[in-house]
Write a structure and sequence with these properties.
The protein has about 260 residues and is α/β, with parallel strands linked by helices. Helices cover about 40% and strands about 10% of the residues.
Length: about 260
């Protein structure tokens, strides 16, 4: 699948917008999205948003299918295909996150990102930051579930342009990790973007997946262990589909996260 996707993206032009000058705006937001609306989100998702509100000073903006266009202008053809069910919600979020960060700067956080402590300073002071993936079929190159960026940052601007161009040329995503592969494309084919990306702190994403994905989710909760596991990660990446995330074992790590006890 990865090789097939490369064939779709390899000839896409890398365009850095002329007005791509990083700017930290006076007010920064944290953006997240749940297309059905905040009140329709699962309990664990609402706990994630509550954790952001507890630990972050920035205003959390939760977008839905109706409010998206109050904040950003999406291409008309893209909107039409999405509303006709021809573009999946995940790929709507892929475009929304770069549109929002290009215009406003701040942070993008997936609806299943849970904050265990305030944002690390090395992230708040960065003009651009994402956690690095393992560069395999399950975690290719970068993780876009969390993005920190100044408004009008060249990396965001070029990424936005190439995502838009892809959807102008194609009717569906070549695979789930399309935005990850497009980001690799822009930093591989433009020396200035490559330099900016290499100057970014490169931190592996595993520190953000310690609790849910390393076998502790159903184990008895341990605050000391939690503090140790999460010290290097701005958040913990969770999920909402499993039985443990819907009906956690009492006293387990899952129980503490689902019910917002950490």
């Amino acid at each position: 699948m990865a090789k097939l996707c490369e064939a779709y993206v390899s000839d896409l032009p890398v365009v850095v917008p002329k007005d791509a000058i990083p700017e930290r705006l006076p007010k920064e937001y944290i953006f997240s999205i749940w297309l059905q609306g905040e009140d329709q989100a699962p309990g664990i998702v609402r706990s994630c948003w509550d954790s952001i509100r507890r630990h972050c000073k920035e205003e959390l903006v939760i977008l839905d299918a109706e409010s998206i266009c109050n904040w950003i202008d999406l291409p008309e053809d893209f909107l039409k295909r999405w509303r006709n069910g021809k573009i999946k919600p995940a790929h709507v979020a892929d475009l929304c996150r770069v549109e929002l960060l290009w215009k406003y700067g701040g942070y993008w956080m997936d609806a299943t990102d849970y904050m265990c402590h305030p944002m690390p300073e090395f992230i708040t002071q960065s003009q651009f930051f994402m956690y690095m993936g393992d560069d395999d079929d399950y975690s290719p190159f970068i993780q876009n579930c969390f993005i920190r960026a100044f408004a009008h940052h060249p990396l965001v601007g070029a990424w936005r342009e190439v995502i838009r161009t892809y959807w102008e040329r194609h009717s569906k995503a070549c695979d789930y990790f399309l935005p990850h592969r497009l980001f690799r494309h822009i930093v591989t084919h433009n020396s200035e973007l490559s330099k900016m990306f290499n100057e970014m702190p490169h931190v592996n994403h595993l520190c953000t997946h310690s609790v849910r994905w390393c076998g502790y989710w159903d184990s008895p909760f341990d605050q000391e262990m939690l503090s140790s596991m999460t010290s290097d990660g701005a958040f913990q990446k969770l999920e909402y589909k499993s039985e443990s995330s819907r009906n956690p074992l009492p006293g387990s790590f899952a129980d503490y996260f689902v019910h917002g006890k950490v």
